[in-house]
Specification:
With about 270 residues, this protein is mainly α. The chain is about 70% helix and about 0% strand. The chain is built from 7 helices and 2 strands, in the order αβααβαααα. It has a two-stranded parallel ribbon. α3 packs across α4, α3 packs parallel to α5 and α5 packs antiparallel against α7. The N and C termini lie close together (about 10 Å).
Length: about 270
């Protein structure tokens, strides 16, 4: 029995992703270089161990987190691993350009790869919320936007925010990321602010008060940026030009993979 899925989906997505990978190869060739300076062997070993642990956690943990889905196990694993590889590359470039803010080549270090791998975590968490209801093009667009927002947010918090500070929704969540990662983080920061407020001696300490204001500002900025970027990304991904899967094809590997032994309608 023939497949009910269009062959164009299986043909266009690999071609599109191949072009994207080629574009990254060209960018890395002309705009990056490797760090050749001498480094402390102990520090280098410690950094490598952390990178190794983070990579294993990302690849084996997030990469196979949805492999138990009965009809979407193949796509789940393949898309997660592809997004991990893609976002690490984009994060290395983005973080390098943002940190140096100069036309010089981005110097790739082991520490920059570690930071990029950790930045990719936010993408895989978000992807876990929409897997099965978005095709690979939509996931890649979401990844590029989110890594960009994450990198800019990290720079603002680390370099610019402190300096400038001185002068009932219908949600789909495949992997439970909202209540597993988002809500605990939000409640934890709110609890932190409340505890500092209750324990602080307002008549003596000014340093704690200053830190409290920074925490409130950081939380407000993170919430505002998350809502705005999430809303804009959602609007872009819902455009019909991306040809997202129809509702009848949600959580179905047969849209992207060939299974000759399976009958139509499995």
């Amino acid at each position: 029995m023939g497949s009910k899925y269009p062959p164009s989906m299986r043909g266009c997505l690999p071609l599109w992703t191949l072009l994207l990978v080629v574009a990254f190869i060209v960018i890395f060739f002309f705009f990056t270089s490797y760090d050749t300076s001498s480094q402390d062997p102990k520090e280098l070993t410690d950094t490598y161990r952390v990178l190794q642990d983070v990579t294993i956690m990302m690849a084996l943990g997030f990469g196979f987190i949805n492999s138990s889905l009965r009809r979407y196990g193949w796509s789940s694993m393949a898309f997660n691993l592809f997004l991990l590889a893609l976002t690490v590359q984009w994060a290395v470039l983005l973080n390098g350009f943002l940190e140096q803010l100069s036309p010089q080549k981005v110097v790739i270090k082991l520490s920059s790869i570690k930071l990029a791998t950790m930045s990719a975590m936010s993408v895989l968490i978000s992807a876990g919320a929409v897997l099965g209801k978005a095709n690979l093009v939509q996931l890649v667009l979401m990844a590029l936007v989110e890594v960009t927002a994450f990198g800019v947010m990290r720079m603002i918090q680390a370099k610019y925010f402190v300096m400038r500070f001185n002068n009932m929704l219908d949600l789909h969540d495949t992997s439970g990321v909202y209540y597993t990662f988002g809500l605990p983080g939000l409640l934890g920061e709110i609890a932190h602010i409340v505890l500092i407020t209750l324990q602080d001696d307002w008549t003596k300490s000014t340093r704690v008060e200053y830190q409290l204001l920074l925490d409130i500002g950081a939380l407000s900025l993170a919430l505002a940026m998350g809502l705005i970027i999430g809303l804009l990304t959602g609007l872009v991904l819902n455009l019909k030009i991306w040809k997202g899967p129809h509702m009848s094809n949600y959580f179905d590997d047969q849209l992207y993979w060939k299974f000759p032994h399976l009958a139509v309608g499995f």
